[in-house]
Amino acid sequence: MKKIAVILAALVVLASSGFAYYKLVYQPSQVEETPAYNTSKVRTGDISITASGVGSILPSQNVTIGFPINDNLSEINVELGDVVSAGQVIARVDSLNIQAQLATDQLNLLTAQQALDDLYNDLPSDKANAQAALLTAQKNLADANYALNAYTTQRCDAASIVLYNGNLVLAQNKYNEALENYNSYSSDSEYDEGKIVAYEKLYLAEVALKTAQSTLAYCTGAADSWTTDDYAAAVAIAKVGLEKAQAQVELLQGGPDPAKLALAEAKLEQVRLQLETTRQDLEKTSLVAPISGTVTALNATLGQSVSNSSFITIESLDQMVLRFFVEEQDIYLLKVGNPVLVTFNAFPNTPLSGQITYIEPTLTTVDGNPAAVAWASFNPSGDVSLLSGMSAEVEVVAGEAKGALLVPVQALRELAPGSYAVFV
Fold first, then answer.
1. What distance separates the 2 farthest-apart alpha carbons in the chain?
2. pLDDT exceeding 70 applies to what percent of the chain?
3. How far does Cα 59 stand from its chain's mean position?
4. Secondary structure of the chain: what % helix, strand, coil (to 5)?
5. Is residue 252 over pLDDT 80?
6. Which residues fall within 8 angstroms of residue 167, CB to CB, at 6 or more apart?
7. Quick check: 240 pLDDT over 90?
């Protein structure tokens, strides 16, 4: 019994020790410690991605003009600060000489047109004249052939030919006698009566000889080569005339003479071109405003020679544009159509809205640093009086979110380099 009691007492001690270890050591080691967190409320708001720049405003259009010709100013219709409309005549130079030339060219045009019209109007009479010329050419050829045939054809009977041969012999003898008698006078005096009489007889004998020769030649048809050649040439000329007359008749069947028609048309076109050139020169004597705007420079006086120089500047001051610069590292934020907020140094409390309209393709240098150049339009305000050249600060809005959830940066936990999360 005593041994059993000792064993029970030992078991009680062991049980008590184990319970104490469980409560004091083991059980506390199994409970995890709860960490402490900072918390913040999420709110809504607007987020914008922007880039800043500086620039100045310029007229949307700016032109400096002058006359394209050299002459003296005869009229100036504007003054500095005047508002002009596109197409308005603002100045003129002396144009009297050009106006005179224009009148001459107009008269030349009428004359050239009349000459062309006459070719058609005169066509019926030209055809009639060509037909008449053809008939004349046919008659001329017939006459030439007849004369040639008449000269080379026998026309007399044998008895007549014998008679004319005898007459020729008698005429030849009388001529020889008269020549011998004339040669017998050795005196050179023009007043030798005997020599004068001898010369007269010689002349009459020569005429009679030629008449006898011609009569016999006509009667026998015997022809000398020289005379025959003359008649043949006349025939050839008559044939050429006939061919030309026939060609002219055929030519006019299709209308006026093509050569004359081409010449008249070329002349008319030349006169037209000259008239158009003169008209253009006359237009150049008037200086017309190419755009609507305000005259901001006027550097000429009446009577002054303009000599191709530009002397009037017109700017569209009612519509300004903004040219501004943005640092090179912000180029990626520039896009055509992106909105901008423009604040002029002269009106810091009146910002104007607009948008980018153009981005220049190359960088420029501003204060030694590379910068991008952009252009923007903006909406004017009646509370702001803008002058060309005013400087402004520009804020380009590359992206924005309206009514977005805004989380404090302290709420971000870095899960890995460059990777963050928000625990809700």
1. 230
2. 85
3. 30
4. 45, 25, 25
5. yes
6. 212, 215, 216
7. yes
* Rounded Cα–Cα distance for residues 199 and 197 (Å): 5
pLDDT of residue 35: 57
Cβ-Cβ contacts under 8 Å for 194 (sequence gap 6 or more): 185
Contacts of residue 118, defined as CB under 8 A and 6 or more positions apart, other chains included, come to: none
Pair type for strands 320-327 and 43-59:
antiparallel
Order of strands, sheet of 83-84, starting from the edge strand that comes earlier in the sequence = 62-66, 310-315, 293-298, 83-84
Please say whether the dihedral angle defined by the alpha carbons of residues 253, 258, 260 and 264, taken in this order, is positive or negative: positive
Look-up of token digits 């009459």 = 204
Amino acid at 177: E
CB under 8 Å to 267, separation ≥6 — which residues?
112, 115
Which pLDDT value is given to residue 186? 73
What is the pLDDT confidence band of residue 15, given thresholds at 50, 70 and 90? very low
| H or E stretch at 357 | strand 347-359
Strand partners, 391: 56
By CB atoms closer than 10 A (0-12, 13-18, 19+), residue 15 is exposed
pLDDT tens digits along 33-61: 555 566 767 777 667 688 899 999 999 88
The DSSP letter of residue 253 is: T
The predicted pLDDT at position 149 comes to 83
Structure tokens at 423: 């625990």
Single out the residue of 47, 110, 99 nearest to residue 71, CA to CA.
Answer: 99
Q: Tens of pLDDT along 303-342?
A: 888 877 888 999 988 888 999 999 999 999 999 999 999 9
